[in-house]
Amino acid sequence: MADQRTLFDKIWDRHAITISDDGETLIHIDRHLIHDGSFHGFNMLDSNGYTVRRPDQTFATPDHYVPTTGDYADDERREKVETLARNAKAHGIPHFGTGDARQGIAHVVGPEQGITLPGLIMVCGDSHTATHGALGAFAFGIGASEASHVLATQTLWQRKPKSLRITVNDARPPGVTAKDIILAIIARIGAGGGVGHVIEYAGETIRGLSIEQRLTLCNMSIEAGARAGLIAPDEAAFAYIKGRPYAPAGGEWDKAVAYWRSLTSDEGAMFDREEMLDAGDIAPMVTWGVSPEDALPITAMIPDPALEPDADRRAAIQRALDYMALIPGAPLDGIPIDRVFIGSCTNGRIEDLRAAAAVLRGRTAKVPGFVVPGSGLVKAAAEAEGLDRIFLDSGFEWREPGCSMCVGINGDTGQPGERIASTTNRNFVGRQGAGVRTHLVSPEMAAAAAITGTLTDIRKLQS
Known about the structure:
By secondary structure, the chain is α/β, with parallel strands linked by helices. The chain has two domains: 7-273, Aconitase, domain 3 (2-Layer Sandwich), CATH 3.30.499; 291-462, Aconitase, domain 3, CATH 3.30.499. It contains 17 helices and 18 strands. The protein starts with 6 loop residues before the first helix and ends with a helix.
């Protein structure tokens, strides 16, 4: 079966240019996404007197520093956004800037514009570039020096990762979303469980997810330590892509789909590792600690470090509980929260907003919160459907597109000691502001928390 290849093998082999003596491969990069944090790469490019090799395959949109309400928090943040616009103009790069309805989070903009396509290798100076793997692209985050190399050459030296297939089968129980599936996966294999690997997600549960749900799943592959996440493209992916601005059209569409149909792992292809989960065993999830692997079903109790036999893990649990101000053995369901955030490249798409709005419709939030659409097009679609009115009527703020409170570098942060139910991807210490305590949940669970003022099993509100 030596000639049987995985989906990842097929993409890698097609893009490999040469292999160095130390085993690294020079690979061709198809598309490069840049944002308002990409200025270091341009500084390196300019200092060497280079130009952008393929401006037509480079796409810019500000997301990290843009304000979601009112004006910029300070001139430094404004300068970051303006610098991106200047660099894009100077190098002839397509730019979805502020004031452009297409502006938004890079990992939302790429798929909705048809920039993300099956079989491509894509990079961006952001760890959550793994998102684009939902459409069958090998996509990963890069640093500033790597970004400079891609800008100048449209290539990158990389050591080929190993492969890990995670198969999820069975029907999803009520209340279980893609966010719950990926949190359950990370809780099982750990935040380092995917290090050195590209994860291919497979199985009937994965095939049953919508494309936007698959984007959520692949987005958090990096939280398991993986280099990227991949899902083989299928009819649902082709239907999602067709007609988007940068997607192939006419005869080129037919040629593209013919190639995309070959992008599956061959029967008998060997993976370096395999994991299997039963979706029927997954419940709505919530994180309790300061790593995405610190996740449990909402029906569970806060772990007791005294019951952990490993000394290092025991100490880590205790540090997390101290920071989160949680009591061992207490139920997760019912923990009071202070604020809710709905948005991010994980859960800021139209389906996410619809799901949250469905829970909030006709109800009033007990705690403050705000909703940040993933792009201007998502915002426009939500307003056309009246979702903005549902959020506003329930007591939420309705804001402009951007990364916002996911990372908080635009100024959207919580207050020290606040406990936030968040649809984002990271619950690190200080991620959403100094001293802020973050619980990662799905959009539905975030909406439920807003209504009750506590972490709440969404199924109580769906019955």
